[in-house]
Design brief:
single chain; 105 residues; mainly alpha; Nucleotidyltransferase, domain 5; 2 strands; 10% strand; globular
Length: 105
């Protein structure tokens, strides 16, 4: 879900531009080390180079989501920042509460 959430956010906000038409920078703040480290440590470059195999020579999980996300990141000014989950970060706690509330019971 974390990967899909970033795709959805970038699809929504990547068209936002300044008064000159230049795309605005986007900072993705996530408690998912998987998402943040993929871009911070450039895992995706290795995945592409290795035919979508991870360091253990296994297929990359969720390749169908990573590919469009990587294209969105390449075409935008995106940075990633990790925040510890359930640690009192106001916005992270809010997003977590919204996600939990959205799950049908």
């Amino acid at each position: 879900m974390e990967v899909y959430a970033v795709i959805d956010a970038l699809r929504t906000y990547s068209t936002v531009a300044d008064e000159h038409g230049a795309p605005l920078p986007i900072e993705i703040v996530s408690d998912s080390t998987y998402v943040v480290n993929c871009f911070r440590d450039k895992w995706w470059v290795k995945w592409e180079r290795n035919g979508w195999k991870n360091a253990k020579k296994q297929p990359v999980a969720n390749e169908d989501l990573w590919k469009p996300l990587i294209e969105l990141v390449k075409s935008s000014d995106v940075t990633f920042r990790w925040v510890k989950g359930h640690s009192g970060d106001r916005m992270n706690d809010l997003v977590d509460a919204l996600a939990v509330a959205a799950v049908p019971r």
